[in-house]
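Apologies for my clumsy wording, but can you show me some protein sequence, whichever is easiest, together with the matching C-alpha cells, please?
=====
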Amino acid sequence: MTMDASAQPTAPSSAEPTAPSGTDGAGAACSTHRTALAVALPRRLLIIACTATQRPDVRLLPALERYHGPSVRVVRRWLSDHPEGALHLDVYVLSAEFGLIPAIQPIPTYDRSMTTSRARALRDQVRTTLTQVCARCSYADSYLSAGKRYREALGDPRTLVGLPSLTTAPEGAEIGRQLTALKRWLMTEAR
C-alpha cells in the first residue's frame, strides 16, 4: 500500500462524520513516486468492511490500524509479509461511521453499526468516492470483503463507472470461508 506524505488525508475534526477531502492517499499510488516494480505491476483495489473490534487508543489511528477484526488482521499480515504486493494494492475501508475511506486515514474510535438505513444514508458518498478513486487509477481488478449490509452501501457495483471486475467475499459464508477467499484473492496475481 503506497502513500505520498503530501497526500495525507486529514482526520475528522468534529463529532460529525466526514468524508475524506480531495486527496486520500490512494491517489499517491498513481503518482510519479512509484518504484520501478510498482510501475510494472497492475494496480489492485481492495475494499474491506470495518469491524466492531477496534483498538481503544485515544489518539487517532489509521483505519487499518484502528480496526482489529479477523479480516483486517489478514490484510495487515499480508501487507507485512508481501511488501512487493503492497506496492500495487490500494486498500479502502467501508466504515459505518465515515463511509468509504482510505485505509491510511486517521480515525478515532467510535461505536456505530452498519444498519440498512445507515447503508442507504452512506450510499451516495460511498459511490461518489469509489467513482473518484477509479477515475484516478486504472485498476486491473478489485475485491470487496463485506457482508450484506455493507454491500447495500455500495449499491449495484455494475453501475459504477471505472470499477474493474469486482470479486466479492462469499455472501452468507462463515468467517473461515470468507477469510480464505480474501487470502486467495490477495495471493492471486491481478488478471
About this structure: Confidence is low (pLDDT under 50) at residues 2-38. The two ends are 19 Å apart (CA to CA). DSSP finds seven helices and seven strands in the chain.
